[in-house]
Design goal:
alpha+beta; 77 residues; 3 helices; three-stranded antiparallel β-sheet; minor pseudopilin epsh fold
């Protein structure tokens, strides 16, 4: 899952990259959550929900806010 700012629509969009293929993100990424098994299986086994919970607990919201401010500034030009 990729949260990106779409420069054309000037809004946030969620994009999905499917089956290890390159997903077309038509915007500037702000957050990315890797849900392929290689990203969580060693630590969480089949418990993907625990991986997602840990991802949110460790998310640096200030960094995400800075990225959002940067893409908004680019989108305004």
């Amino acid at each position: 899952m990729i949260l990106a700012y779409n420069l054309h629509t000037r809004s946030l969009h969620n994009y999905w990259a499917w089956d290890h293929m390159h997903g077309a993100v038509t915007g500037m990424p702000i957050l990315a959550l890797d849900m392929y098994e290689h990203s969580f299986h060693m630590d969480y086994g089949t418990q993907a929900a625990k991986y997602i919970d840990a991802w949110f607990r460790n998310l640096d919201w200030q960094a995400a806010d800075r990225r959002y401010a940067q893409v908004i500034a680019v989108g305004a030009t």
